[in-house]
Amino acid sequence: MCKALSVSKSAYYNYKSKQQREEEHRELERLVLGVFRFHKRRYGTRRIVDELGDLDIKVGRRKVSSILSKYGLQAIQPKSFVPKTTQSPSGMLRSPNLLLDRPFPQDINMVWVGDITYLPMASKCWSYLASWLDLCSRHIVAWEVSDHMREDIVIDSFKKGVLKRRPGSNLIVHSDGGGQYGSKSFRRLLANTKSQQSMTRRDNHYDNAYAESLFSRLKAELIGTGRFSSLEDARKECFDYIEGYYNTIRKHSSLGYKSPLQFERELKRSK
Fold first, then answer.
1. Across the 271 residues of the chain, what is the mean pLDDT of every consecutive 10-residue run?
2. Sign of CA dihedral 252, 254, 260, 266
């Protein structure tokens, strides 16, 4: 072959090696772009590298970044997170913050953190999402979308979580000082489930940072600059994102790049 082509063996093998490297790079590009598009721009270089690592493909963040830049692609970046507080209604008894100076929970169903956020609608009004996040596993244990933010949205979502997870007594239920969480009905529910109520300190912007950070990420990855066409549309999209992606697929850096579901399964096996 080399004689027929009038080339040296070394030149031939260098050519073959170059062809192989180019083919490997094209395959790597295909995989990187595939992961990026599957996760709908929600994965940056760290998570893409980890995802490829699950396939036994070793690649650095710089290489992944170079491929994304080549195609003009950039992951979704949530807005800078600025925690907000909700003031307690005048005269409402505010529960103490039970998370202060407490070790981070090492098991599920020890601490749930809750919050309510606004969801934009095409009609230029709002719907509302209430959720409960397990602080250990980052699993959204329950949620509710409604056209109001009365205490029912908090009560109904919490009941769902209790039925689904069956937490034992002394579950710490942490939230801001909003009137929904300080209502007699919600406090009665906590007493019936033998849960302990915990609230953010007044005017402290970071006491409920985990729940508010969740909503910052959810709005960036699910909504962006869009709006929901109807209440049912909002519920469906939230279901697809929370149950079909966030809890079951999305890798969390705080969990060692595992999904909440994977983290909980491994935690259970380790006991």
1. 50 60 88 94 94 92 94 84 54 87 94 95 94 98 96 97 95 94 96 96 82 90 90 96 97 95 96 80
2. positive
